[in-house]
Design brief:
Order of helices and strands: HEHHHEHEHHEEEHHEHEHEHHEHEE
Helix content: 40-55%
Distance between the termini: 22 Å
Strand order of the largest sheet: 2-3-4-7-8-9-10
Length: about 325
């Protein structure tokens, strides 16, 4: 298909995230994290721990090399956004943003982590945290407020220091069977603070993407009520999670990101993967407001050829015509939602 190439990846991302009419060409694509750089490009990122013992010259080299690798991955895989995760502190994060911009100008929408809301507790303190919601609710509310205030102060510093584009809020709320907190408790302890956090970030000029794994259906309306630009990652491995259902229910209110089941990429047959990816594209693309990707990240250990098969499916069935109609590579319209 002959599609317009005049739009940058960032422009494609912003069109989807702001629920604008889809731009002609390929549907935008993004991963929270790509952990297969050694298999794809023969080199890996310098992890945050490696910065801690580095002298200033080495630290500067690590930042430059990470920036180069972020851009190389985004160019090779045609990503529209880059989430910077390999930085031990905000100073390094800011310098990495500047280094990427020096290499790629304003071609990609640049993100960092930025959640402050309560996530599912770790196994080591799950019982203690769960009890605190019942035994010390006022203390938990105060902690939630303090965390939001701190996060918004940090957001202001990041916007001033490097002009970061957006924040990914990655507190996980749900298991495959449903949320850790009941919808009623979620309404009390999460929703007000997530709403304040999103509103505060948007006022600062950030794009805001909310990520959570698991079955979000019992709290889907509350998540959308908080008005993030995007909702990631449509975890179809979880009970009740179907991209067509979610698209029909909230796709007119929030951009949907993800949809391709990570576990299927690892264990399914090529035929199963292709059929699943085509389904995700057919159900996610209509009307725009969709960014293609996996239901979590391209994780270490996932065979690279399986991940590339997912991108091959996008090459076959992931295009928009000038009028916004989703079509295959040969121009054939995709099945309607």
């Amino acid at each position: 298909m002959n599609a317009s190439c005049s739009f940058t990846p960032k422009e494609r991302a912003l069109a989807a995230l702001t629920l604008s009419s889809p731009l002609p060409g390929k549907v935008p694509c993004f991963e929270l994290e790509f952990q297969l750089a050694p298999e794809l490009l023969g080199k890996d990122f310098h992890d945050p721990a490696s910065f801690l013992s580095a002298d200033p010259v080495t630290r500067e080299r690590f930042i430059r090399e990470n920036a180069e690798l972020y851009v190389a991955v985004a160019e090779r895989l045609d990503y529209c956004m880059i989430l910077i995760v390999h930085a031990p502190d905000d100073a390094t994060l800011s310098e990495t943003v500047k280094a990427i911009r020096k290499l790629a100008d304003d071609r990609y929408l640049l993100l960092a982590h930025g959640d402050a809301t309560f996530a599912i507790p770790s196994g080591s303190d799950m019982e203690e945290v769960a009890a605190a919601f019942f035994e010390k609710p006022q203390e938990m509310h105060q902690l939630a407020r303090d965390r939001v205030i701190w996060a918004l102060e940090r957001g202001h510093r990041l916007k001033e220091s490097c002009g970061l584009d957006g924040l990914a809020l990655c507190s996980d709320y749900c298991f495959n069977t449903g949320p850790f907190l009941s919808p009623k408790m979620f309404r009390e302890f999460i929703t007000p603070y997530l709403k304040d956090l999103v509103a505060g970030y948007k006022e600062q000029g950030f794009i805001v993407i909310k990520h959570t794994d698991g079955n979000i259906m019992p709290i889907l309306d509350q998540l959308v009520e908080c008005r993030p630009h995007g909702l990631h990652a449509l975890d179809c491995q979880a009970r009740e999670m179907d991209i067509a259902t979610i698209k029909n229910r909230v796709g007119h209110q929030v951009c949907l990101l993800g949809g391709v089941q990570c576990s299927l990429l690892q264990t399914g047959t090529e035929e199963e993967i292709i059929a699943h990816c085509r389904y995700v594209l057919e159900k996610g693309m209509p009307g725009g407001g969709f960014i293609y990707g996996t239901t979590n990240v391209a994780f270490r250990g996932l065979p690279l050829e399986r991940y590339l098969l997912m991108l091959w499916a996008r090459d076959q069935w992931g295009y928009y015509r000038e009028d916004g109609t989703p079509v295959a590579k040969d121009g054939t319209p995709l099945s309607p939602t």
